[in-house]
Amino acid sequence: MVERTAAPEAPPESDPVMPRALADIAPELDPALAAPSSLREFWGDFSQNRGAVAGLAMVIALVLVAIFADWIAPHSPIEQFREATLTPPSWHEGGTTKFLLGTDALGRDILSRLIHGSRLSLFIGFISVTLSLALGVVLGLLAGFLRGITEIFIMRLMDVMLALPSLLLAIAVVAILGPGLINAMYAIAIVLLPHYVRLARAAVIGETGKEYVAAARIAGAGPLRLMFNTVLPNCTAPLIVQATLGFSTAILDAAALGFLGLGAQPPTPEWGSMLADALEFIQRASWVVTWPGLAILITVLAFNLMGDGLRDALDPKLKR
Fold this sequence. Notes:
CATH class of the domain at 118-318: Mainly Alpha
Shape: elongated
Mean pLDDT: 83
CATH architecture of the domain at 118-318: Orthogonal Bundle
Strand content: under 5%
Radius of gyration: 28 Å
CATH topology of the domain at 118-318: MetI-like fold
Number of strands: 0
Largest sheet: none
Low-confidence stretches: 10-34
CATH superfamily of the domain at 118-318: MetI-like
Order of helices and strands: HHHHHHHHHHHHH
């Protein structure tokens, strides 16, 4: 019999699917590779909302104005030009630009006060939101993990705070602590607190029943590690959105307290106190009221637009 030798097998052709498969699992092998992809995906979802992009641009411009206020402002915010009280907006005076947005009753340049007021408004919003977010996350984690009497006490206290109008609660806190910028920030932080507590508690309750939490508990993770290392990183998306929207609320409340004389005290340039100082001149010098009001409107609108875009980009239920 003639033995038949098997023909040598041809070398396998390279599978064109393999590179794509490796590219798909590469982020799982190296988490550092997943970060650029996640950022690109986030920006793609965020940039689909043109209003959010416009809001982000306005916020960036506002931050730059606040940082470089000392160089951008044409005059000192507390400098008084006695010969130019209640001067209307003038683009040119004697061949040079003088008061672009006019002056107030004391002869202070409104544009300079608005520019420096942006720094104060952002500072108030940042401190108030940071304090409220930090305390709200801690209380929300405690309520979501411990449950029972601890949860009932914390949540009923938050319900009582929500039952009061926010401005009335802020006024009550400032009345107890005393008028001033620092106390106004504390009052605004207390007003914003219930929103972060309720949001953090709901997110924690939704995450604690998942398998990765049970696996971490079985592996020996303690309560603090479960709270802050395991569960909290997966609850940050709604908290970031709420913090962004909280900026606009903090700026509005700060302006309201300043308008009532309970926030920043004269001669500090603050948009709410500028409105209060100009109230009696609203009929014969409308620009004194118009520009601070527009500054508050544009700033609040910018943060709200950016917050809506963050919500659409970070919430998987809202993605198209």
